Amino acid sequence: MSLTEFCSICSFPTANKFAIKPQIFILSRAFQRGFRPVTNTINSTGKQLAARLLRVQAGAIFLLACVFSLVQPINGYLYFWGVVGGGIAVMIPTALFAWRAFASGGARAAQQVVSNFFAGEAIKLTLAVALLVALLVFTTLPYSAVLSGYIITLFVQWLAPILFLKST
């Protein structure tokens, strides 16, 4: 759509260039380039950092699980899966929190951002406790492995602001 077509639709005079407001020129540029969504928003940055945190947590869980399974000559697989279970008990609630907290954004949705953040944190805490209790009560996995996986994954989460400081 050209500027003259846009002006004729909106019934703006095109005879005098100076009669058209500067906003029309901005709109005409948008029509020429095509509307492109803004991709570098706070939400997308937050989602990228959350995905990076989950990858680092998964790596820490895997390394610790390998160490536990190598150190324990008998039933090493139980220790491996205990560490993985303890780490997953932190990773799943963290992923749900990130999904909930970064669901909406922008200055106009400030109230919804705050309510999403608090709802996500409530879901995270409740689910983390439920998963940890379920692992400790309903499985035969070693407590030391489950708690080690849980603690190391939480430790990585607490260190995330320091680890990702230069990336933002």
Overall description:
The protein has 168 residues and is mostly helical. It is 74% helix and 0% strand. The protein has helices spanning 3-9, 22-33, 42-71, 76-101, 110-138, 143-163. Helix 3 packs antiparallel against helix 6 and helix 4 (76-101) packs antiparallel against helix 5 (110-138).
The percent range for helix content is over 70%
Q: Based on DSSP secondary structure assignment, what is the total number of beta strands?
A: 0
| Succession of helices and strands | HHHHHH
Count the domains. 2
The chain-level mean pLDDT equals 78
Instruction: Give the quaternary arrangement of the chains.
Output: single chain
Strand content: under 5%
> How would the global form be characterised?
elongated
The description of the largest β-sheet is: none
The number of helical runs is 6
Give me the secondary-structure category: mainly alpha
Q: What are the segments in which pLDDT stays under 50 over at least 5 consecutive residues?
A: none
**Nearest-angstrom radius of gyration?**
26 Å
The CA-CA distance between the termini, in Å, is 39 Å
Transmembrane segments: 53-71, 77-102, 122-141, 147-165
InterPro entries: ATP_synth_I
Pfam families: ATP-synt_I (PF03899)
Membrane topology: Multi-pass membrane protein
